[in-house]
Each structure stands twice: as C-alpha cells, then as structure tokens.
Specification:
- By secondary structure, this protein is α+β, with helices and mostly antiparallel strands.
- The protein has three helices and eight strands.
- The longest helix is centred in the N-terminal third of the chain and has 12 residues.
- The radius of gyration is 16 Å and the shape is globular.
Length: 146
C-alpha cells in the first residue's frame, strides 16, 4: 500500500531506530558467538574510555546490534546481576534537538543506573539513556547537538 504524503512527512519527522544494545560480560566472546552463529560482520567498534565502555556494532541485515561492555567491574556486575548478557536498550535517533522527550525522565549514562547531569556529546550528537514512564524499556536517545 503506497504511503500518502502526510504519512511520509510524519514518518520523516519521527524517530528512527538506530540500534538495539546488548550489555555483555565478555565482549570478545559475545562477538565471536554472534559472528559464528549468524555469519555477521562487525561494522564498527567504539572505545569510550571516559565512559569506561567498549562496543562492537554488528550488521544484522541493516539493523545494527550493539554488543557492549562496561570496564567498571562493580557496575557491570550490578547491571548484569549474575547473567552473562542482557538486552539493555533500544536506541532511537531523533531529528530535533529541543529535548521535549526528556520531560519527566531521569537521564543516565550507558550501563549504569545513576543519573547524569547532562547529555553526553559523542561526535555530532548527544546521547542519553532514559526510562520514560509508560514505555517501560530503557531507551538511548540520540539527537543532533545544538
């Protein structure tokens, strides 16, 4: 069924799924298992020493899956609660920078429950992790920096 112009226009203003994030205890092992089982390649890696995280983004038919770990052992243990991995967040890329989606939400950094004072600037975008009331899943919001 073809989209009409108002549907296409609304879709272009809405968020876009950027990736799904999975927190893992052993990044190297997780990448190997995903790569071997599903025959997927690592599209890119990210090292963020200031946030104490390492990540590998796998290209799963155009839908990126982020496998990442936190190098702070206590924070990692608390987040995983004994599990080797867990589905951690859904990342949405927003097309505006007004911040209205943060209303009523505590913002935090990756892999940790503690609030942070401001969004984290990475490249040309800011990143926050929030749990909006009624959504009931951790979201990473990526929006253009002002």
């Amino acid at each position: 069924m073809p989209e009409n112009s108002s549907t296409a226009s609304a879709a272009s203003r809405g968020p876009r799924l950027d990736h799904v994030g999975i927190l893992v205890r052993d990044l190297e092992s997780a990448v190997a298992h995903w790569s071997n089982r599903f025959r997927v390649e690592v599209a890119r890696t990210v090292e963020a020493p200031a946030m104490s995280i390492s990540a590998a983004f796998l290209d799963v038919s155009g839908a990126p899956v982020e496998l990442y770990t936190v190098h702070d052992a206590d924070a990692l243990d608390a987040a995983l609660d004994g599990a080797p991995a867990k589905l951690d967040h859904v990342a949405l890329r927003l097309h505006h920078a007004d911040g209205s989606e943060l209303a009523g939400c505590a913002i935090r950094g990756p892999g940790r429950p503690d609030p942070i004072a401001a969004p984290i600037l990475m490249g040309d975008a800011t990143h926050v992790w929030i749990e909006p009331p009624g959504i009931d899943v951790l979201l990473q919001l990526i929006r253009p920096s002002e």
